[in-house]
Amino acid sequence: KNSIFVAQTDYNYVLKKIKARVEGGAKMILSDESISTYSETRDTLSWIYNQDTLANFDYKYHEEIYSLYGIFGQEVGKFKYQIGLRGEYAEQIPELVGSTQKYDNAYFNLFPSAHVKYVFNKISELSLSYSRRINRAESDELNPFTSYADPLNLRTGNPDLKPEYIDSYDFGYSFTKKKLIFSWSVFHRRTTDVINRIKYYYPNNTAVVTYANIDKSESTGLETVIIYKPFPWMKN
């Protein structure tokens, strides 16, 4: 079973005298998930089916996210800039029903952003931007239940997983005319606390597959887009 509730409000005000705008807003997300599994295993001697206690589990997952954001943007001569900040409080609560262990992953974060554009003329401009984002663990990755379906290769989630954080930098150029659109951009992404699937080996020849924050990643690339519309009736 899954349920989700979302409430959001936004505000926008234009300051015409200084060619600026102010934006703000708030958002709330409440989500719940419940999983109930049941299976039976047949006894090879009596041929009677018995409840499989090593495979059955009841799992509940609750998530709350509350965020506030503000943005200020302005046009100054050939420059356009925008700065923003989002504050977010989140809770991820995985619960294995019947277990005495309780998990409550609560954290608060600030996510800044900044964008600058230089407009050469009506058809071309340069842009530079920075933003910070978050990637939360999925509910199944947090599920602490250990599956013994294969006694030598166990599987379990990690309820202590932290979110991934991504810092993104972009520098680009765009050229737009009636029939031709051309753009290129250079980007760099830096991710910390990367969530990876890992495998532990034990002296008794068994192993368990789970998840952990064990790495960071960096990626840099170049992206080019060319769109040509020879006829007015053609769409992008």
**Overall 3D geometry?**
elongated
Output the strand order for the largest sheet.
Answer: 1-2-5-6-7-8-11-12-13-10-9
Per DSSP, what share of the residues sits in E-state strands of 2 or more residues?
over 45%
- Taken in chain order, the helices and strands follow as EEEEEEEEHEEEEE
Structural class: mainly beta
Supply Rg. Answer: 25 Å
Question: How many DSSP-defined strands?
Answer: 13
Our measurement of the CA-to-CA distance between the termini, rounded to an integer number of angstroms, reads 40 Å
Oligomer: single chain
State the helicity in percent bands: under 10%
Mean pLDDT: 92
The profile of the biggest β sheet is: 11 strands, mixed
Question: pLDDT below 50 for ≥5 consecutive residues: which ranges?
Answer: none
DSSP summary: helix tally:
1
Structure write-up:
The protein is mostly beta strands. It is built from one helix and 13 strands. The strands form two sheets. The chain has an eleven-stranded mixed beta sheet with strand order 1-2-5-6-7-8-11-12-13-10-9. The chain has a two-stranded antiparallel sheet with strand order 3-4. The longest helix has 4 residues.
